Amino acid sequence: MATKRFSLQELAEHSREDSAFIAINGVVWDCTCFAEKHPGGAEVIESAWGKNASQPYNEVHSPGLVESFFGEEKFMGILENDGFNENGPQRAKRCLQPIQNIVNLLDMEKAAGEILTERAKVYIEDASNDGVTARLNIQCFQKVLFRPRVLRPVGSISTEVEILGKTYGLPILNAPVSLSMIAHPDAEIALAKGL
After folding, report:
1. Does the 5-79 domain belong in CATH 3.10.120.10?
2. What residues does the Cytochrome b5 heme-binding domain cover (predicted)?
């Protein structure tokens, strides 16, 4: 049996509660009766009925999640022209400042602000409920100083440190966070590998 090919117009015809299709990364899925089960809320799914939801999906989920969740029985076909332009990484590369120009956290924040989406900026800057952790993190990083020393041998220096028996290039560690993919599609992998 040939795979059905959907145009954007055909996809838009399936935007009702009894016939709800969503396109994700060029694949059309039957999401009828799924909205109430979605952990992120029914309105997120309902607003995507009959549309290409690639961009909002990819900001939050890994590419294979939809296929592993729905399976073959919910696969409806292929979107002919998915209209999804994955220019985020290319745009980011064009806008990136040279790394040698970033000398402190304010520079890093400014550089990130130029390439992150508005949603990612809001999420990262939100600092959760009271913002105590965010303020303390800023205070801690402000205490890190690089003081030049006169008449010291600096031909061979190292920022390596040993923490819990493992050697790290810098004394900076990270912890897992949710929704890191809104900053970059590979953010979860990068965070898992560590700094």
Report:
1. yes
2. 3-80
Task: Give mean pLDDT, residues 172-192.
Answer: 76
Three-state secondary structure string covering 59-128: HHCCCCHHHHHHCHHHEEEEECCCCCCCCHHHHHHHHCCCHHHCCCHHHHHHHHHHHCCHHHHHHHHCCC
> CA-to-CA distance for 93 and 116, rounded, in angstroms?
12
**How many residues are given for the chain?**
195
Question: What is the bridge-based pairing of β-strands 166-168 and 75-79?
Answer: unpaired
Report how far apart, in Å, the C-alpha atoms of 164 and of each of 158, 161, 167, 173, 177 are: 18, 10, 8, 12, 22
- Host H or E run for residue 137: helix 132-142
Across the chain, how many H-helices and E-strands are there? 9, 7
Spatial contact of 11 and 84, defined as CB atoms under 8 Å apart = no
What local confidence, expressed as pLDDT, does residue 86 receive?
47
CA–CA separation, 32 and 21 (whole Å): 7
d(CA 53, CA 29): 11
